[in-house]
Amino acid sequence: MLVVNMFNKNVKCLLNLYKLKLNKRFNHTWIQPEGYRTPIKVYNCVTRQNEPFIVKNKNFVTWYTCGPTVYDSSHIGHAACYVRLDIIQKILKTYFGLNLVTCMNITDIDDKIIQKSIETKTHYKEIAEKYEKEFWQDLKTVGISKPDIVVRVTEYIPLIIDFIKKLELDGTAYVGKDNSVYFDVSKGCKHYGKLQTITDSLPDKSNLFKRAPADFALWKIRKSETEPSYPSPWGQGRPGWHIECSSLASMIFGNNIDVHAGGIDLRFPHHENEEAQSCSFHGNNQWVNYWIHTGHLHLKDSVKMSKSLKNTISIKDALEDRTSDVFRFLCATSHYSQPIEYSDELLDTAANLLKIFKNFINMCDEIEKGLIKVSLDNTILNNVIAHSICEIDKALCDNFNTPRVVQLLSQNVTKINTMIHVSDKSQVYLDKNFHLLLAFKNIVCSTLSLFGIDFKGDIQTANETHSTDVIELLVKFRQNIRLIGLENKNVELLKLCDSVRDNLNKQGVMVKDHGNVSSWSM
Question: What is the pTM of this model?
Answer without folding.
Answer: 0.83
